[in-house]
Amino acid sequence: MTDLAGKTALVTGGSRGIGRAISLELAARGAAVFVNYRQSAKAADIVVAEITGAGGTAAAVQADVQSADDVTALFKQITSEAGTLDILVNNAGMTRDNVIMMMKPEDFDQVLATNLRSCWLCCKSAARIMMRKRTGAIINITSVVGIAGNGGQTNYAASKAGIIGLTKSLAKELAVRGVRVNAVAPGFVETDMTADLSDELKGAAIDAIPLGRMGAPDDIAKAVAFLASTDASYITGQTLVVDGGMVM
Ligand code: NAP
């Protein structure tokens, strides 16, 4: 499929896990992809090599997306190298789980900055480009935890619920300029983020998934590519849940 041919995309946290799968999927559909990373330079280079080796176009771009200065520099680099941006995927994220009595204010601030502030900063920079072009697609990666909540994740759930509110508000702001803003809410996906969970916890989570398995990063990437494509041209402000039926 080459439905994204001629498009330029940025995937934050695009070097590992779900972001890696999204970078590969967008590139396989013809988009030129900027693969953002914060510290995993080697992993980002591998993703870029995989894309270019298959005949696609990609570049690795370093930025800590919770930093306003880094995001400004990142978008400066993208506009100078590609001249434009058509697709933004806000995927960078982290967890720092604990029950509220044990959670430090720094754990709350760090997770909100990494997951929510980063999303707002990148949306703002992308909106400047896309509003001028009167077209564009922004896809924000939230989580079913932002919808249903989860004990031990008050910080993470707040950040992910915030992304859903941000998505709807920005969709309302930008619709008149032809820019669509949607969110994808993964359920329980096999990546480094979930690798450290105990077998007991994983087993219990899988028992709660009607489709009977953890999600693969590719499951999420396909949903993102759909929302980025013209097949979704009448969809904005939505949260597409991709969780094997876990939350319904
Ligand atoms: P992961 O394997 O831990 O990867 C996280 C990615 O985010 C890495 O590429 C990391 O890059 C990047 N990142 C973190 N902080 C960053 C920062 N400040 N600036 C730039 N990049 C940063 O996580 P994942 O499971 O793929 O999760 C991806 C997204 O899906 C996250 O938003 C997560 O909340 C969401 N999600 C995941 C699941 C799941 O079950 N896995 C479920 C629901 C939602 P570096 O390595 O370079 O730091």
Helix amount, in percent?
40-55%
Q: Would you tell me which CATH topology applies?
A: Rossmann fold
At the first level of CATH, the class is: Alpha Beta
What is the number of strand segments? 7
What would you say this structure looks like, in words?
- The chain is α/β, with parallel strands linked by helices and 248 residues long.
- It has a single domain (8-237), classed as NAD(P)-binding Rossmann-like Domain (Rossmann fold, 3-Layer(aba) Sandwich).
- Helices cover 48% and strands 15% of the residues.
- It is built from nine helices and seven strands.
- Strands 3-2-1-4-5-6-7 form a seven-stranded parallel β-sheet, sandwiched between helices.
- Helix 2 (41-53) links the parallel strand 2 and strand 3.
- Helix 3 (68-81) packs parallel to helix 4.
- The longest helix has 29 residues, at 105-133.
- The protein is globular, with a radius of gyration of 17 Å.
- The model has no long low-confidence stretch (mean pLDDT 97).
- NADP nicotinamide-adenine-dinucleotide phosphate binds at residues 12-13, 15-19, 36-40, 64-66, 91-94, 114, 141, 143, 186, 188-189, 191-194.
Topology readout:
Elements: E1 8-11, H1 17-28, E2 32-37, H2 41-53, E3 58-62, H3 68-81, E4 87-90, H4 105-133, E5 136-141, H5 145-148, H6 154-174, E6 179-186, H7 192-195, H8 199-207, H9 217-228, E7 239-242
Parallel strand pairs: 1-2, 1-4, 2-3, 4-5, 5-6, 6-7
The structure holds NADP nicotinamide-adenine-dinucleotide phosphate (NAP).
